Amino acid sequence: MAVRTLLESIRETLAEEMRRDPTMIVLGEDVGRKGGVFLTTDGLWAEFGEDRVIDTPLTESLIVGASIGAAVNGLRPVPEIQFADFIFPAFNQIVSEAARLRYRSNNAFGCPITIRAPYGGGVHGALYHSQSVEAYFTHVPGLKVVVPSTPYDARGLLRSAIRDPDPVLFFEHKKLYRSVRGEVPDTDYVVPLGRAQVTRPGDHVTVIAYGLMAHYSLEAAELVAGEGISVEVIDLRTLRPLDTETILGSVKKTGKCVIVYEDNRFGGYGAEVAAVLAEEAFDYLDGPVVRVAGPDVPGVPYSHTLEDWFMVDPDKIAAAVRRLAAY
Amino acid sequence: MAVRTLLESIRETLAEEMRRDPTMIVLGEDVGRKGGVFLTTDGLWAEFGEDRVIDTPLTESLIVGASIGAAVNGLRPVPEIQFADFIFPAFNQIVSEAARLRYRSNNAFGCPITIRAPYGGGVHGALYHSQSVEAYFTHVPGLKVVVPSTPYDARGLLRSAIRDPDPVLFFEHKKLYRSVRGEVPDTDYVVPLGRAQVTRPGDHVTVIAYGLMAHYSLEAAELVAGEGISVEVIDLRTLRPLDTETILGSVKKTGKCVIVYEDNRFGGYGAEVAAVLAEEAFDYLDGPVVRVAGPDVPGVPYSHTLEDWFMVDPDKIAAAVRRLAAY
Amino acid sequence: MATTGTRAAAAKGAAARRADLPFGPELGLRRDQLIEMYRLIATTRALDERMWVLNRAGKVPFVISGQGHEGAQVGLFFDLRRGHDWLVPYYRSVAACLTLGMTPREIMLAQFARADDPSSGGRQMPGHYGSAARNIMSQSSPVATQVLHAVGIALAAKIRRTDQVAVTELGEGASNQGDFHEGLNFAGIHRLPVIIVVENNGYAISVPASLETAVEDIASRAAGYAMPGVIVDGADVLACYRAGREAIARARRGDGPTLIEAKVTRLTAHSSDDQQTKYRTAADLAEGRQHDPLPRFRGELRDAGVLDGGLEERLAAEIKTVVDDATDWAESQPEPDPATAERYVYHEPEA
Amino acid sequence: MATTGTRAAAAKGAAARRADLPFGPELGLRRDQLIEMYRLIATTRALDERMWVLNRAGKVPFVISGQGHEGAQVGLFFDLRRGHDWLVPYYRSVAACLTLGMTPREIMLAQFARADDPSSGGRQMPGHYGSAARNIMSQSSPVATQVLHAVGIALAAKIRRTDQVAVTELGEGASNQGDFHEGLNFAGIHRLPVIIVVENNGYAISVPASLETAVEDIASRAAGYAMPGVIVDGADVLACYRAGREAIARARRGDGPTLIEAKVTRLTAHSSDDQQTKYRTAADLAEGRQHDPLPRFRGELRDAGVLDGGLEERLAAEIKTVVDDATDWAESQPEPDPATAERYVYHEPEA
Ligand SMILES: Cc1ncc(C[n+]2csc(CCOP(=O)(O)OP(=O)(O)O)c2C)c(N)n1
Ligand SMILES: Cc1ncc(C[n+]2csc(CCOP(=O)(O)OP(=O)(O)O)c2C)c(N)n1
Ligand SMILES: [Mg+2]
Ligand SMILES: [Mg+2]
Q: Which residues contact C59 (CB under 8 A, 6 or more apart)?
């Protein structure tokens, strides 16, 4: 089995899907000749030509809006937003248009597009190259939101996303692109959307995370393991639809839960997870539902010292786990 | 004391503030000669002239972006977005720019603008004239978000918002514009941002709501009062910053809480309220934190029967209160 | 009104042209086609007037429609291939939708928000048309978003070599939105088979053209995207037909997009929620009525001997029957079942 | 490269003009002003080169800067009133910021992300300049948003009758964003005192001009907003000065906005994260270097006898000292204190 970085896994999956499905196109800023600012689309332009790998002008609303139209007329577009931070000019097209097309037309039209965007902090990207933007989209009925954390999942989830008949947002953590490696089978496997994964079984505290934080949560679990705290870690992988079955199952077992996300705390995605637990796991909870999340400032600052202050890390997670375990 | 509708209260407050502060301007689509599609700005154009009451082109990003620039150069703009549903083209300007200007400039620049927008369903407005959009903005550090539910609060909160040195989103429920009346003193009172109000004291269950739902919650409380269920109703009034003191105080007393919002349930504003309770009120809770919210479909449908299906109403709230009270 | 000068000039030019050339033959239009165009315009008008009657009678809570725009829409789109080419409409596109094959019954199903409304099953406000069967894209309310959808549809047509043309319509107010700029820019770069029609009626709700843009003609912006910008008098149906035919042929040939600005008039208030006398003078309203395409086209067809031998009356009677039928039938259809309200958020696999 | 033809033509025109007219006097520029312009351009270049050296040395993780753009910026903005008029910059605006009074030390504070960096206190990436004291608006990363801020600043200037002019800069790639369209449209309607400068360097990161727009000149879009569209050779500092002075005077007179397109060259990669050899040929890069404004302006000043008597060498030495000082001093300044990281999300009332 081949070992791949997250980035390689995504790049190969894009190429494979384009080979498999002649209607798939990739479009975005610098995705063509340059191969993307992170080289995620490197090689596609050479293999599939400028008709199917389109260097667009610097216009995010167009990138998404034209993808919607192209999807309606028989293509399967996989647009890229260069950084998740720059998805906001396309917000109207995503939220008002892509998400609602099927519902508003009473199923007459669908919108099979997968919008890829690198996200996340800890990369010295400052306010506008570090954002976690998932909460804006997980709230939107009609969208699906996926955040892979391993090369294996990235491939299986990207396949599911591209083949899905509805619009999917696929967020890739920049810090994981080259830092995580893993085995990726050659088979045409898929990881279904909407299924979380228990990445470490445990008994005392459940830690729920995704993306970079899924890794940090495993590290935190390791940190406290020596202290006799047995942590169950869940990597959500798909944020919408949320796999409530898996999280409720775990919390029923452990009775305690820490939710980890790197986005700003207030109103972030973890709030919904906490709300689900507060409503549906009340009888099983042996302690407060704890959130470890980014502070409520308008972005990750650039200076290293300030960035470290902002970012959730394994130590901050471990500290919360210890406190909750002792509750 | 004068009795006013919510709409009249807002209209008069705008006029008064323009008289008080010569740097205040109002801008938006149809706000001038027509006086706004709801007549909320009626009379301003005649009184203050086209320099200070500007009929803009049909361009929301410009409306907000130019307001930011004007604020930086000494004006106090109060832009209107004609319907909250049409705020998304301005999303980038609000979230990336207005919200972050102070933080990113390390306090060198501020952005005193108040963005008003009518929102909400139950008015046969269908998918694109019924939305609750607060959750997209309550998540954003740097913004304040206000939702008045009475003519008294509307005046006091709008004064606070306009005089605030930071960007405020001020959402006005369309269905309340003409349906609610109340006494409004002639004095220059303000209602401070960030303070919720207990609008009905009670002992068994706390109901937290805002906007139209604040009224429906009072109606629901009345519905169950005869059954011996004593409900405490809290009108949040300001959604960001959230008045955690008031809600925690109430839930410590009642031990049970229903959160009501008309927006889609998953990831809506109530999720954050539930998360705060799950974390900070755990020791006091005698039952699950219950949410009564709009269903997770991409918008309020137009047909009356479908709209009724969508909308949260006093009966649905009362049903949830009964279930929780019996828990 | 900013557009008046140009509109008058366009009208004069058109009149001059018709003086030398009898209009049917040199445009390649047969008599039955001219009658069909007239029928579409007159049917749309009758349907549209009925909507307002229903609204005043309290039977439908909301109307937004296209009186004054019908001539431009029928003329511009008459040469499209039905069921093959794409229309990406806006809320004034009643005539365009009929031209591409929607029926009066279908329009009225939307107006009454009935379960079988093909546009949205009663989920959207009236005026938000769509029909998958006829390649009429479902529309939303936020203006100008549809420009990008039309551009994307044209991109797919080009990549898939389907020989399709995509047309879209929007108001002159909407054309100031960012999406318009981004869409035209992309269409220009890739020479896409798309036609963007701006129906300039001089107002965005109450905001007059002079406060919407600094230029007289939206079409003047076409140069910035390396595409032709065509101004046409929207009251002159055959001038519209000619402009549409040329743009369609151009797109079909692979020569790229066209921006067409039709100078039209809004004969009604913006919608049933609007009171236009608050912001339009009596003179302005009267001037607008001078540019009604329907009596003008009727006069032209009478003069040309097309509407003779009682045909005009027969058509009128037929249209009345069609509109009565559409109204009564649609009203009698069932409302959507709330049990269906949560369906189709996502694709539902066959059972 | 799409811009080459025009840029060459503009250069030729400028050369012809200078043949008849000695350039300093007829532009009203004194000798000390010419020297000041040269000093600004040369200092910016030296600072900019130092940033890249620091980056390669691992001392600063990121550089984005304006080599090739300095002549346009200094020329266009030299006639602004410092501390009165407004600059709404972008990430290549190093020269513009120095022209309006920022110091090399301040630029280097941003580069090293130090606590006293006036742009952001080390919160933003380098290249995001701002200075409240000098009316330089804080900038963000999403492109083209600043066009609307400049328009709003100009609106306030007009309403408050402050006699201020606002200028903003962006790339030709960014000019395809919706915000550009909306901003120019509004500026045109209200004839606002704003100057929008598009610095066209032929690339948006790797995307060549031919894939960004279908037109040769962004300035051709000005007509669609009823404002002058001026094309200027960005390597011709005095042509830029003339164009800037005219636009500033026009704005100050109340005659409204101007769109200026400066044809420039990007001498470096897009940023320190980019490798431009992947998408630019050696010939293209060599051609770009022909349009470097610095040696050209130096030559012009030498020919005109302005840089004589050892002045050129003295300036070079001074500039080196200034850049060394700025670098060493800024590097030695304290980093931001994490205890301050949660401050200034909102206004903090005085204690
Ligand atoms: C993004 C957005 N903002 C505001 C509105 C509200 N609105 C609906 S139609 C309209 C005016 C449209 O004017 P124009 O584009 O000229 O078209 P017309 O109605 O005159 O045909 C406005 C402001 C909207 N639908 N979408
Ligand atoms: C909205 C947005 N999308 C994408 C980016 C990423 N990005 C930064 S600069 C740039 C290219 C800019 O090109 P141009 O406007 O021509 O300016 P230049 O860098 O050539 O001076 C891109 C794509 C961004 N900053 N903002
Ligand atoms: Mg109009
Ligand atoms: Mg460029």
A: C112, C331
